[in-house]
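Problem 12. The chain below contains 509 residues. Write out its predicted structure in token notation.
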Amino acid sequence: MALAGTLSIALSGVSGRLIEVEADLSAGLPGLTFTGLPDVSVLESRDRIRAAVLNSGLDWPNKRITVALLPADVRKYGSVFDVALAMSVLAAAGAVPAESVAGVVWLAELGLDGRLRPVRGALPAVLAAREAGVRTVVVSPGNCAEAALVTGLNVLVAASLAEIVLALRGGTALGSAPAGRSDPPAPLPDLADVVGQPVARRALEIAAAGAHHLLLEGAPGAGKTMLAERLPSILPELDPAQALEVTAIHSVAGVLPGGAGLLRRPPLQAPHHTSSMAALVGGGAGLGRPGAASLAHRGVLVLDEAAEFKPTVLDSLRQPLESGLITLHRTGGAVSYPARFQLVMATNPCPCGAGKDTDCSCTPDARRRYRRRLSGPLLDRIDLQIPIDPVSRTELMQDSDAREPSAVVAARVAGARAAARQRWAPFGWNTNAEVPGPVLRSRSWRPPRQALAQLDSEIERGGLSARGCDRVLKLSWTLADLAGMARPGSAEVSEAIWLRTGRAAVTSV
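Solution.
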């Protein structure tokens, strides 16, 4: 009887767990059996690894082979275990030294010709290997760029099974993964392209400065989509920890550009209004893949033509807007993906999209039904709700040199974010949008008495819910940061109320 073992990684969301792959060869009817909760793709590897071994010029052991994937109570998904399975069998058969594969993590899919193919989630898998204390990881050439982003362990690259066997037998050593390149990022759409809309541009700057959610409602052609798509151009770059987190999510989803380094820019996701709930919040076979909301983590999720989305799809965002996390429950278990994004919704005021009530051909009931597609609980979570008027002829013909570019606005946003980060750093928050309402309502952080009177008046008249009150306080702090003030005053609270409700604040006497 011969026994050998090696390692691989099982992913659950963006978290990985070290898996021991053991192979036992014994007398009996030749065949390969698995234990340890493998899914269909792992079971199918039986034929892939046998063909890969034979086509690499190696002998397949004519024995009864039992492979254990440990811990046995953890479900294993995907083809990431292919090379680890093949190496454990070859080591048990004596084709390679058993000690040479012990303690090594293998992350690759095998082709029938023995070539190593890339897999989804290589970056979080390598991170999990490092956290588990593993010193050596072997990946395919297609995953070497993202694997090389992880420091503190030896990342090796192999193109084929035959190359691995040759290296383990004392031949040419496997090469190390080259450091990820840093290509200059492509230019983003600039705010200077947006004609007119000074109020909406101001709202976009406020949203960027405080990481607030934004609703733009107005006639077609007024610039709602252009504004929404230019929000990333005024957001600060991600710090290294955030960039690694965002890159890991894109790696798990299989949408990370080949050979790319860390994603330093806040991502932008703009799903079509026909998107399903699974496409928006995640789902699919097994434990489910991340959806657009998670791919927009630390960035912007744009829902253009928001009222055309199915109401149930829109309402699925209510929980992640509060928690910044999406948990998908399936019969095989639960998986969680980060989803702390800025939501920007753009919508027409009615089905016909008329810019003025006098031009609208919709009945009052049709307008109400269209508006109700955006539910009250969802709108209550949107900080800024801004009406967009059509662009005038004078604004349309304005020289582009007179319009502020993104770089100028981004500098003000960076200053406001730095002020908020310095203020909230002792509590572990970076932006005003992250601060809980009870903190802002406490004696240490609430606005002056006159500003609170304005809030009280809005709450009494039913214009603001308790959540809406907290959102106004967050907005007022962002306005203070943009103005370089130590704390918000009555003017900031009054503007925040208007940005939230579209009504000027009225102080009760």
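Discussion. The radius of gyration is 28 Å. Students who got a different answer should revisit the alignment rule from Section 12.3.
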